[in-house]
Design a protein that fits this description.
With 109 residues, the protein is an alpha+beta fold. It has a single domain, classed as YggU-like (Conserved Hypothetical Protein Mth637, Chain: A, 2-Layer Sandwich), CATH 3.30.1200.10. The chain has 3 helices and 6 strands, in the order αββββαββα. The relative contact order is 0.23.
Length: 109
Amino acid sequence: MICRVDDVDAFLAALRADAGGVLVPVRAQPRAKREGLAGLHAGALRVATGVPPSDGRATARIGELLADSLGVPRSAVACVVGPTRRDKLYRVAGLTPLQAGARLRGALA
């Protein structure tokens, strides 16, 4: 995956602190052939999963992929906005925006 440095910098600067963690905007890409971080889309982290978007399974799987990419326990990641939409907002507990940004920059490189 190729991301422009300016896009990555703008995305990482937009990460917001929340009570005990950081808020990460995500654009879901269900039914993808490959799972994982797939770049950026309109100011959000694009996360691809092979799971179909039924019964919240894609939302749960995206949370697992996000946790694995950030190196936090899966229980530290929760979808707080948009569980049934493509555009979602996840709260990652235990990280500051700077820590999350550094880990995501490495994952997007």
